[in-house]
Amino acid sequence: MSLTNASPEAAARAAKISSRTLAILSTDARNAALDAIYDALSAAKNDILAANARDLEAATKSAADGQLSQAILKRLDLSRKGKFDDMIQGIKDVRNLEDPVGKIDMRTELDDGLILHRQSCPIGVLLIIFEARPEVIANIASLAIKSANSAILKGGKESTESFKAISTVISKALDSTEVPNDSIQLVTTRDAIDPLLQLSQYIDLVIPRGSNELVRHCQQMAHMPVLGHADGLCHIYIHPDVDVEMAVNVVVDSKTDYPAACNAVETLLVHEDALKTVLPAVASALLKKGVSLRCDPVSKTALSESLDKHDAAMLQDVTEEDYDTEHLDLILTVKAIPRKSDQLASVDAAIEHINIHGSGHTEAVLTESKEVADRFCNGVDAACKFWNCSTRMADGMRFGFGTEVGISTNKIHARGPVGLEGLCIYEYRIQGSGQGAGMYGAGGRQWKHRRLPL
Amino acid sequence: MSLTNASPEAAARAAKISSRTLAILSTDARNAALDAIYDALSAAKNDILAANARDLEAATKSAADGQLSQAILKRLDLSRKGKFDDMIQGIKDVRNLEDPVGKIDMRTELDDGLILHRQSCPIGVLLIIFEARPEVIANIASLAIKSANSAILKGGKESTESFKAISTVISKALDSTEVPNDSIQLVTTRDAIDPLLQLSQYIDLVIPRGSNELVRHCQQMAHMPVLGHADGLCHIYIHPDVDVEMAVNVVVDSKTDYPAACNAVETLLVHEDALKTVLPAVASALLKKGVSLRCDPVSKTALSESLDKHDAAMLQDVTEEDYDTEHLDLILTVKAIPRKSDQLASVDAAIEHINIHGSGHTEAVLTESKEVADRFCNGVDAACKFWNCSTRMADGMRFGFGTEVGISTNKIHARGPVGLEGLCIYEYRIQGSGQGAGMYGAGGRQWKHRRLPL
Question: What is the residue-wise DSSP string for B346-377?
Fold first, then answer.
């Protein structure tokens, strides 16, 4: 890893060149590099925490001046209990995952002595832009090396000292391994992001990890594909047949387990027949957890009649904007879905609301009916469609991927929680024995196209 | 299918809305629509050919005025022997392919009663921009319907009458099926391309099928991902151990089978030790086929000494530009690769040339040595890597995909020949029983993450 003061173009070109060396390293060589990084970071804990303390000191001043939020300050602090150890344990976890490179997923005999196969390979050069969390640098470096991709990292300026300390250690560790030093580069140049986003000849994929603004900026400016999501505007639809206790548990978890997460629920859609049977218990539990409920007129009327006076007085009125807002806070929009003669028509009304206002991230339905669940899951347009569980399940660790690069709402390549597989693409290889295309077709040889075992 | 005079935005919005209806249709419903289109086009053959004759008449005039090439004129002509029948047979072929939608490729038990699976689903709305070939409209309509994607088609103005005739027939045929009419729209508005390329809220993927200029324009202007390739600058590297007859056959096929194709070879890299043993026979066969050879000094000297006078006199000098030019014609660049003490070092020199000048499309190596072939295939950065066969094998039909949307040199999503699979993405679904994320972790339940059979 180099901590580079090179121009964005020089850094990207160096990353591209080293990506081909990295691409052909063995699994063992890449794992050995991760072991070396783990050992070096463990040994340098004190130095890194000292550097982090300098970042914190500067940030604390900015926070006191009101220029930096307490939330960023908290994210910046590597000395919090367990955080450093979690960071380096993450390297070991990634190291121990299955190699995503070189997996064969298709083999076809095109003709005698003409065998086609498809195998996974790295994408090439990743540009990863992130904000305050200093531990991300170790996480990204390990994901990139494991998947044999070069990476250019651009971190937030609040963490500069921590980044420099960590990258110096990683760089020195890599020198003893087969992984080229240039394959992981930290760019610290101010204003490097926009120039980097134009270098599509060197950079294959951008992964922004941070605020919606950062993601949108990358989506608008990048000349190469961007992997990620801007908004996470998730819905839960409550059908009247659902078990009340389950509805309470799932909605409370979806909203309060981590309200600032992209997979937290933002809007509750409630079938008219559930407004007085299911919703009151859900609303009451949410209010108890400090959640503000922004209700449409129908749901507010129903709730006002069902809740005790104290709770009823806390209900707020929804605005049109709420339906399109990712609150990232203890605020939940509530909207009634009209009863129709056919129960599936009500489900369709919920689907329609979601497909207009949703962000394609995660949508959940709470119902006892498989027919309702299928209708909902088939109809909504989203990366994750959950029946009877929390929207918070949308997460690479929970999905069993071992790690997560982020969650994607893209419609191509990788969608939903993205693990190492999303950092790979595939290539086709043929082993032939001199065949030309002109040998085949009318009057010539016929294709066999026989699928072979992997 | 509507032949729309609506604004690009109205067309795109309508396509987005109908994409959700299309996405939930059964395999049978989509196949029935393809049957209906097949029958209707068969019945309307005379009307369509009459419309095509009007296009041809106008185009012939333009060609006479020098405003249109003979090649475009030829591509425009649907009345050429077998062309119409091939067009409608293509619809049947696509109809009979396996449904790419709803395939489950992962199932995981996250916990008791909490089952995650991943299944393929359509991308949503495709924008397909193409040039003169009128048969493309039937091909694209069938690919889109089969893969349950809405499509907006924008064709070249030379084929307007043919397009209108075909789309009127398709539109009427769809009216008798469950596929929404708006899911396939033909936009004929002049200058609609650029506005369409901005509508990322409605359009998920652009597929340009046409000239390099068209593809580059889309890549630069589109606010959504673009699938395809601009250049196809393919190389063949000849190692000295190769069988001469095989080298002749493969190189001649790669260059002359269809010189205007993206998978035709443009540059021949020849190991120094093969310049007098293998290259003369290859060069002689190519010259006999009318191929111009643009040689670097080393290869030219060697060939001049080996070929007869007549052939030697036809050799041309390479320019630096040739190394970066997709000739799409009977022209081949020839370059010698220096002998090194280690034979793999020579392979590396060929790899380096390819990774600088190649387009990531298809690269081939001709050698008897598995070690050399592996080094080459691991080292070059390309979608297709072939050992001992023609670069022309890079093709969806030859790969056994049944059909092809195009060939992609993208580094994400779909790469190489793209069949129906490239028009799909996946979604994650969970069937739970009330679980929240807060139930898991320290002191709580543990994840099972058990892979289940598909």
Answer: HHHHHHHHHHHH--SSEEEEE-S-HHHHHHHH
Q: Where are the beta strands (DSSP E) in A140-264?
A: 150-154, 184-187, 205-209, 234-238
- For chain A, the farthest-separated pair of C-alpha atoms sits apart, in whole angstroms, at 86
Burial letters B168-194, b for 16+ CB under 10 A, else e: bbbbebbeebebbbbbbbbbbeeebbe
A394 to B243: CB separation less than 8 angstroms, yes or no: no
Cα A382 off chain centre by: 14
Question: For residue A199, is pLDDT > 70?
Answer: yes
- Report the C-alpha gap between B167 and B170 in whole angstroms: 5
**Please, are residues B202 and B15 in contact by the beta-carbon 8 Å criterion?**
yes
| Contact flag B411-A425 (C-beta cutoff 8 Å) | yes
- The reported pTM is 0.93
- For chain B, the maximum distance between any two Cα atoms, rounded to a whole number of angstroms, is 86
Contacts of B399 in chain A (CB under 8 A): 108, 110, 116, 428
Q: How confident is the model at residue A64 (pLDDT cuts 50, 70, 90)?
A: confident
Q: Tell me which CATH code domain A2-221 carries.
A: 3.40.605.10
pLDDT, one tens digit per residue, over B168-178 is: 999 999 999 99
Runs of H (alpha helix) within B132-236: 136-146, 160-175, 193-197, 212-221
Q: What is the pLDDT of residue B155?
A: 85
Distance, in Å, from the CA atom of B245 to the CA atom of A387, rounded to the nearest integer, reads 62
Q: What burial letters (b/e) apply to A358-393, b meaning 16+ CB within 10 Å?
A: bbbbbbbbbbebeebbbbbbbbbbbbbbbbbbbbbb
DSSP one-letter code for B391: G
Q: In angstroms, rounded to a whole number, what is the distance separating the alpha carbons of residues A60 and A57?
A: 5
Contact call for A252 and B411, based on CB within 8 A:
no
Those residues with Cβ within 8 angstroms of residue A269's Cβ, 6 or more apart along the chain or in another chain: A235, A236, A237, A238, A335, A337, A350, A353, A354
| CB half-sphere exposure, B274, CA atoms < 13 A | 29
Give the pLDDT confidence of A75-97 residue by residue, as tens digits: 889 998 889 999 999 999 999 99
Show the CA angle centred on residue B386, arms to residues B383 and B389, nearest 5°: 140
Domains in chain A: boundaries? 2-221, 234-393
Which residue(s) pair with A336 in the sheet? A270
Q: What is the mean pLDDT of chain B?
A: 93
Q: Which residue of B has its CA nearest to A360?
A: B427
- The band of B264, judged by pLDDT with boundaries at 50, 70 and 90, is very high
- For the domain spanning A234-393, the CATH number is 3.40.309.10
CB A5 within 8 A of CB A164: no
d(CA A370, CA A448): 43
ipTM of the complex: 0.94
Interface test with A, best of B25, B244, B361, B381 (most A CBs within 10 A): B381
User: Measured between alpha carbons, how far is residue B320 from residues A122, B173, B295, B304, B315 in Å?
Assistant: 30, 54, 11, 21, 16
Q: Do A379 and B116 touch (CB under 8 A)?
A: no
Given a cut of 70, whether residue B346 has pLDDT beyond it is yes
CB burial of residue B117 (10 Å; 0-12, 13-18, 19+): middle
Distances (CA, A) of B434 to A260, B118, B195: 22, 20, 46
Contacts of A258 in chain B (CB under 8 A): 437
